[in-house]
């Protein structure tokens, strides 16, 4: 067996968990699991049982009632009491977990529980709380993709995990260097539902050793299960909060229970504010001294999915009625602790002078305010605040107001809500893959005078510039001609944000005209609100916007077989919303023209493009752009933003404000022409230095190598940006270099990288190099397709029962390895080649080829460690320990290494440096596969 097997890793984990306070128990089969559960039930309920432990018949009745349920029903039972009728007909209450005093539960850990359900299986590490298996840890050795642990759990969920294992609440998967957690479910679980844990500053905790310390500490994991999971009774699923959601709720609870001050949470749009605000509301409503928790939204958000989601978490908590009667009844009912209503309805309740409202001048009340950058400003909020004399206010927003974007009355969010209690910014969410970034494109749509800015023109000549017939049609034609490029051939949908209702109507009419002319076949719709008494502006041909909307709805009805008019505006709104979310071919809206509606509070994973012909800035801009950046599992790398106004300055400013950074490069870009010019300038310098890729091999002077590295790094950096544009073509005519020649130069670049990073460090050259401190930015060179994960998937597809097919696949993988540009794949390439040539031909037909590879890799790793130890006259046992600790925790104890070297100080230091370098290189080579 190779060094640091999964069995050895399990023992490290078990030892750490024991040190944290878990009792290690020897439970290796289901019978022992049941006996342990029974014993703990008796211990925890000895007072209720009055010294008479459960009889066999009583325990059998209990197991019949609680064993073998669905994951959802088991989660419900875990959080509820069970009434057990004893043999003498008396009743006792059995509780399975102490939900309020988390530390007062019994914590145990075991490993290798063997089960035989559909198939025989053994589970790695199981955490038991009060005898129930509530957390399952699946471990893979360093170097194996964390997704393999995930896939193994998915197999167990399909084939095993029956009986009491349906009580598992959380899964933890790790390969020592990457660790994530996720909630159990009766449904399919996607890889994107695995979460990183982090600290309060949103810094990830990846290493298994650190994760165990932070997340699996007994009181903390019990608290996560008891407090920070949500049982969604509508969808019948379990939901685990992400770390930033936990920290936000904790901050609100601390503020509400320990002070009389207000506060707000700044979590970027799309990061799950609904779940966070619900959990905070729910927990506050359970506090005895708080009479009511009232979740306030703006009336125009009443129909959005935020409230629909809220109702899933707590049934009938949302008041969808159009009057204040239900709200007044809820306020009068002491059993209703959590109310969801509109700020308008609450203001009406205050003005109603009903008797019930008097008590709220003194009663402790908590207001949770959604989209607090918007709804808290105005007379209604002041009216509510004056009436509720003993209230605290907590706001949620993805885009707070600061000095730069303060409200009309000159106030910022902090002026109203005081302190920001926790933040999770858009840059954090993009890093954690919770939302996507933006690709922003700007298109000029008129020829302005040289010194005349668009913004100035927009103020003085709106009708002639922005509403000009030629301009509107030109924009519409450009939009439909590029629609399929932006929406992945219609697999996604788009919105078009425009300045005004008249502009929306004009664009709609032009799109319909172009459709009639067979310029496009897209389904275009629009939605907007209208005023009962509009100003006709004394136009002779004036038509009320309601009448226009009725005509538009007729087109909609013809296209989709519906029957809406403005008397059923709510039905039309709901149908539009549904089609924009579901995006079913031949039944979808391709372009939805909007003015203000749908630009906040609307989430659709299938919406990937926003066209903009509207002045936007600050929070309005980020809110609108963020409609496009929801994660979707298929071919959606970012949200596309196509601007038909020059919003670059406004976009830069908004990104800087709401990311708290001056770096907008991840979101914004120069023009294609500017990048192309930069690329060609750098390419000329590369050709001057090395006319052909083979000339790079002739470099002897390190300063010349350094110059080449910097030039080619900059060239590749520019190429990455060029590839994001529609105009990009990788041809000799377009770029000045063919794709094959570029790949040849890249191979030389990577050779220098390996020479510097690996060859020299291990070759004994103690002199410093001018290349040592260069940032090679190897990630710029990566081909995301051909990486270790991709190659391992191909190896897994080798057909061992067909010699011809087997050898064809081996040959295919060899060819791909020759083009390897992924850093870790280049490190593993020789290993994989040797495995393909020496091991694969000798494998039997029924062999597990992936397992065979990992066994081979373990053996080779052991040989490398032993060989290096022998060469450096260093203990292989100690070297194994150091490698293992670095894989496990990310730490290398230089002092420990030095204590085991019996040489003078200078030689000892140099040998320590070499050992440290070897450990780092070995872990990279045999390390994590994603």
Compute the average pLDDT.
84
Enumerate the spans where pLDDT stays under 50 for 5 or more consecutive residues: 759-768
Helix/strand class: alpha/beta
What order do the strands of the largest sheet run in, or round the barrel if closed? 1-4-5-6-7-8
Give the biggest beta sheet. Answer: 6 strands, mixed
Helix content: 40-55%
> What is the alpha-carbon Rg in Å?
32 Å
Beta content: 5-15%
Shape: globular
Number of strands: 24
Distance between the termini: 24 Å
Individual helix count:
36
Concise overview:
By secondary structure, the chain is of the alpha/beta class.
If you had to describe this structure to a student in words, what would you say it looks like?
The protein is built from 36 helices and 24 strands. The strands form six sheets. A six-stranded mixed sheet has the order 1-4-5-6-7-8, with helices on both faces. A six-stranded parallel sheet has the order 15-14-16-17-13-18, with helices on both faces. Strands 19-24-23-20-22-21 form a six-stranded parallel sheet, with helices on both faces. The longest helix is centred in the C-terminal third of the chain and has 24 residues, at 739-762. It is globular, with a radius of gyration of 32 Å.
List the helices and strands and how they pair.
Layout: H1 6-20, E1 23-24, H2 30-44, H3 46-49, H4 56-66, H5 71-78, E2 81-85, E3 91-95, E4 107-116, E5 120-129, E6 132-139, H6 146-159, E7 170-174, E8 179-183, E9 197-198, E10 204-205, H7 208-215, H8 218-227, E11 229-232, E12 237-240, H9 243-258, E13 263-267, H10 273-285, E14 292-297, H11 305-313, H12 325-332, E15 338-342, H13 343-351, E16 365-369, H14 372-375, H15 379-387, E17 391-397, H16 413-417, E18 419-424, H17 426-431, E19 438-442, H18 454-460, H19 462-465, H20 469-486, E20 493-498, H21 501-516, E21 524-527, H22 545-560, H23 569-582, E22 591-594, E23 607-613, H24 618-625, E24 639-643, H25 648-659, H26 672-689, H27 702-722, H28 732-735, H29 739-762, H30 788-796, H31 803-818, H32 823-839, H33 849-871, H34 876-889, H35 894-899, H36 905-925
Parallel strand pairs: 1-4, 6-7, 13-17, 13-18, 14-15, 14-16, 16-17, 19-24, 20-22, 20-23, 21-22, 23-24
Antiparallel strand pairs: 2-3, 4-5, 5-6, 7-8, 9-10, 11-12
Helix pairs in contact: 9-10, 13-15, 20-21, 24-25, 26-27, 27-29, 32-33, 34-36
């Amino acid at each position: 067996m190779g060094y640091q097997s999964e069995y050895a890793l399990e023992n490290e984990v078990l030892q750490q968990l024991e040190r944290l306070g878990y009792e290690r128990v020897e439970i290796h089969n289901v019978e022992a699991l049941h006996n342990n559960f029974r014993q703990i039930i008796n211990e925890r309920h000895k007072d209720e049982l009055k010294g008479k432990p459960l009889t066999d018949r009583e325990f059998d009745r209990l197991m019949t009632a609680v064993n073998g349920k669905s994951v959802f029903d088991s989660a419900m039972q875990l959080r509820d009491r069970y009434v057990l009728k004893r043999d003498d007909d008396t009743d006792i209450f059995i509780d399975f977990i102490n939900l309020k005093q988390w530390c007062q539960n019994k914590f145990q850990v075991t490993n290798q529980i063997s089960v035989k359900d559909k198939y025989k299986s053994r589970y790695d590490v199981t955490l038991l709380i009060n005898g129930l298996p509530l957390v399952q840890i699946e471990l893979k050795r360093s170097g194996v993709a964390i997704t393999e642990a995930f896939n193994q759990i998915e197999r167990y969920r399909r084939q095993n995990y029956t009986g009491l294992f349906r009580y598992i609440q959380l899964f933890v998967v790790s390969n020592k260097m990457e660790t994530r957690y996720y909630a159990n479910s009766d449904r399919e679980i996607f890889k994107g539902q695995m979460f990183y844990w982090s600290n309060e500053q949103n810094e990830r905790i990846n290493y298994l050793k650190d994760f165990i310390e932070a997340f699996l500490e007994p009181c903390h994991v019990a608290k996560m299960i008891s407090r920070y999971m949500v049982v969604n009774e509508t969808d019948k699923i379990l939901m685990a909060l992400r770390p930033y959601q936990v920290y936000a709720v904790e901050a609100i609870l601390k503020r509400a229970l320990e002070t009389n001050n207000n506060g707000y949470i700044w979590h970027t749009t799309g990061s799950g504010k609904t779940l966070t605000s619900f959990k905070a509301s729910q927990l506050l409503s359970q506090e005895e001294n708080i009479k009511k928790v009232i979740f306030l939204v703006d009336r125009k958000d009443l129909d959005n999915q935020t409230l629909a989601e809220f109702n899933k978490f707590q049934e009938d908590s949302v008041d969808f009625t159009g009057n204040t009667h239900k709200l007044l009844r809820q306020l009068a009912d002491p059993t209703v602790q959590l109310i969801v209503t509109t700020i308008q309805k609450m203001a009406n309740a205050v003005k109603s002078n009903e008797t019930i409202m008097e008590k709220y001048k003194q009663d402790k009340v908590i207001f949770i305010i959604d989209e607090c950058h918007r709804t808290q400003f105005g007379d209604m909020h002041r009216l509510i605040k004056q009436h509720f004399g003993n209230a605290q206010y907590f706001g949620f927003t993805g885009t707070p107001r600061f000095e730069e974007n303060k409200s009309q009355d000159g106030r910022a969010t902090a002026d109203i809500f005081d302190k920001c209690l926790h933040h999770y910014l858009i840059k954090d969410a993009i890093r954690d893959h919770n939302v996507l970034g933006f690709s922003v494109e700007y298109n000029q749509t008129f020829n302005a005078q040289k010194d005349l800015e668009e913004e100035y023109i927009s103020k003085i000549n709106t009708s002639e510039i922005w509403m000009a017939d030629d301009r509107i049609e030109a924009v519409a034609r450009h939009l439909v001609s590029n629609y399929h490029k932006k929406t992945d051939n219609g697999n996604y949908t788009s919105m078009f944000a425009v300045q005004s209702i008249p502009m929306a109507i004009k664009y709609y009419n032009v799109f319909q005209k172009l459709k009639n002319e067979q310029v496009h076949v897209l389904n275009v719709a629009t939605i907007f609100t209208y005023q009962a008494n509009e100003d006709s502006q004394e136009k002779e041909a004036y038509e009320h916007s309601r009448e226009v909307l009725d005509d538009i709805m007729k087109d909609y009805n013809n296209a989709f077989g519906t029957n809406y008019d403005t008397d059923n505006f709510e039905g039309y709104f709901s149908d539009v919303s549904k089609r924009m979310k579901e995006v079913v071919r031949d039944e979808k809206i391709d372009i939805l023209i909007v003015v203000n509606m749908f630009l906040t509070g609307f989430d659709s994973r299938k919406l990937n493009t926003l066209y903009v012909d509207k002045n936007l800035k600050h929070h309005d801009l980020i809110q609108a752009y963020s409609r496009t950046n929801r994660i979707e599992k298929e071919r959606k790398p970012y949200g596309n933003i196509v601007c038909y106004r020059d919003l670059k300055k406004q976009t830069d400013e908004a990104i800087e404000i709401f990311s708290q950074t001056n770096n907008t490069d991840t979101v914004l870009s120069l023009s294609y022409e500017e990048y192309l010019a930069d690329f060609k300038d750098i390419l000329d310098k590369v050709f001057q230095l090395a006319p052909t890729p083979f000339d790079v091999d002739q470099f002897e002077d390190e300063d010349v190598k350094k110059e080449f590295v910097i030039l080619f790094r900059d060239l590749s950096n520019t190429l990455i940006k060029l590839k994001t544009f529609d105009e990009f073509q990788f041809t000799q005519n377009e770029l000045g270099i063919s794709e094959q020649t570029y790949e040849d130069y890249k191979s030389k670049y990577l050779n220098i990288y390996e020479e510097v990073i690996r060859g020299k460090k291990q070759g004994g050259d103690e002199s410093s190099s001018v290349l040592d401190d260069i940032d090679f930015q190897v990630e710029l060179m990566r081909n995301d397709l051909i990486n270790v994960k991709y190659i391992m998937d191909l190896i897994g597809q080798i057909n061992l029962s067909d010699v011809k097919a087997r050898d064809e696949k081996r040959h295919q993988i060899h060819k791909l390895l020759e083009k390897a540009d992924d850093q870790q794949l280049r490190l593993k390439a020789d290993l994989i080649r040797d495995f393909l040539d020496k091991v694969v031909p000798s494998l039997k037909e029924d062999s597990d080829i992936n397992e065979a590879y990992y066994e081979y890799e373990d053996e080779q790793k052991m040989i490398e460690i032993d060989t290096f130890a022998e060469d450096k006259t260093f203990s292989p046992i100690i070297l194994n320990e150091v490698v293992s600790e670095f894989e496990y925790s990310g730490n290398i104890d230089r002092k420990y290494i030095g204590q085991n070297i019996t040489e003078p100080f200078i030689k000892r230091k140099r040998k320590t440096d070499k050992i440290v370098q070897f450990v780092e290189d070995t872990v990279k080579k045999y390390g994590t596969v994603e």
